[in-house]
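Severity: low
Component: inverse-folding endpoint
Summary: output formatting inconsistent between runs
Steps to reproduce: submit the following structure tokens with default settings.
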């Protein structure tokens, strides 16, 4: 986990950043003076204090030695490690997850991967464990499994999911896992609260190419949207912007096959994974 353009939202990383700023300021040092004293660059100090970089254990030890803190920064670093799975969540996603549990309706479009609530454990494990240590991957899988229960709980939300055909054909896991994943989608599609349709592959442009997104509706609160497009992920609450996503979803769904034909296409692709 390194530097990035936007601050991490994980509380432990933010706490470390705040603590560092407070100790440096109390010592009467600016970032350049402090960096020179410890042997780091001012840019690195700025990144850590802005919660845009995750400190190493060595850096935490050096801070404790410099400030004579009796282990304050190492304990902060340990807290980061204990909760490191939170650090990789994109901006706004933690808040989105809370809202998702309260929604009465979900409308989602996926261009690249099967959406989280639709995933089997094998599929999500293949994705979430990629380039991550086993413990972090296991923690993320556990959390996503709990998220999946939203669709099958008592009094579940109504949900409409539209998938680009490429999502079904993209072999991101072993063939057995892909077969299981598509079978799971078909099973979910049999539930009275869920409709799943597919936009067939086509040579011409259609609005879904802008990227994946989901809309949440609530009984007594405004709709929100969460988008994953062009490498950017964000929670959108501005009413005008959310309304545009609602129009976009209707447009995208207009390109999808009817439910029966969508189901037949999923079955055909699933059989190809045998």
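Observed output (run 2 of 3):
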């Amino acid at each position: 986990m390194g530097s990035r353009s936007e601050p991490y939202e994980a509380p432990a990383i933010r706490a470390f950043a705040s603590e560092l700023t407070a100790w440096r300021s109390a010592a009467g040092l600016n970032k350049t003076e402090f960096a020179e004293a410890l042997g780091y660059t001012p840019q690195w100090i700025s990144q850590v204090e802005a919660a845009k970089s995750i400190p190493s254990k060595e850096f935490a030890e050096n801070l404790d030695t410099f400030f004579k803190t009796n282990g304050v920064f190492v304990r902060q670093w340990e807290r980061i490690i204990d909760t490191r799975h939170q650090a990789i969540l994109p901006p706004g996603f933690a808040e989105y997850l809370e809202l998702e549990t309260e929604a009465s309706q979900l409308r989602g479009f996926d261009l690249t991967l099967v959406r989280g609530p639709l995933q089997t454990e094998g599929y999500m494990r293949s994705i979430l464990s990629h380039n991550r240590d086993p413990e972090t991957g296991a923690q993320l899988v556990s959390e996503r499994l709990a998220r999946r229960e939203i669709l099958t709980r008592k009094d579940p939300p109504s949900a409409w999911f539209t998938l680009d055909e490429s999502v079904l054909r993209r072999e991101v896991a072993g063939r057995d896992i892909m077969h299981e994943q598509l079978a799971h989608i078909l099973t979910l599609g049999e539930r009275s609260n869920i409709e799943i349709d597919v936009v067939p592959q086509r040579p011409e442009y259609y609005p879904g190419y802008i990227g994946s997104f989901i809309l949440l509706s609530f009984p007594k609160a405004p709709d929100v949207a969460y988008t994953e497009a062009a490498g950017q992920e964000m929670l959108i609450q501005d009413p005008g912007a959310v309304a545009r996503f609602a129009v976009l979803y209707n447009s995208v769904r207009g390109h999808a096959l009817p439910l029966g034909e969508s189901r037949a296409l999923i079955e055909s692709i699933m059989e190809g994974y045998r």
